[in-house]
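Data availability (excerpt). The following record was deposited with the supplementary files.
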Amino acid sequence: VQLVESGGGTAQPGGSLRLSCAVSGFTFSSNFMTWVRQAPGKGPEWVSTINTGGDSTYYADSVKGRFTISRDNAKNTLYLQMNSLKPEDTALYYCARGYLGDYWGQGTQVTVSS
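Predicted structure:
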């Protein structure tokens, strides 16, 4: 099982970033997928989950209305579009398999700073 995140970087407050997570080693289309983040000095925080077909999505209150989770089952890829970024969104972002996340990627750093 492999999950590889990309797309992180530095953005200004109010800016946007799009994260990707390429997966292999399991049947992507049969699994819910989740984004989790961890800010410096804090524990992991659930961000968003998407069902297998991509037609049901769930968000933490802290990102609702700003972030959009999506997936392309043909490409075995999960996405997180992040708009209206805030400094408090600064964290290491992980994609994970399932709602509870039994497998995680290595993470991609997102820094929001002016």
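Summary of structural features: The chain has a mean pLDDT of 97.
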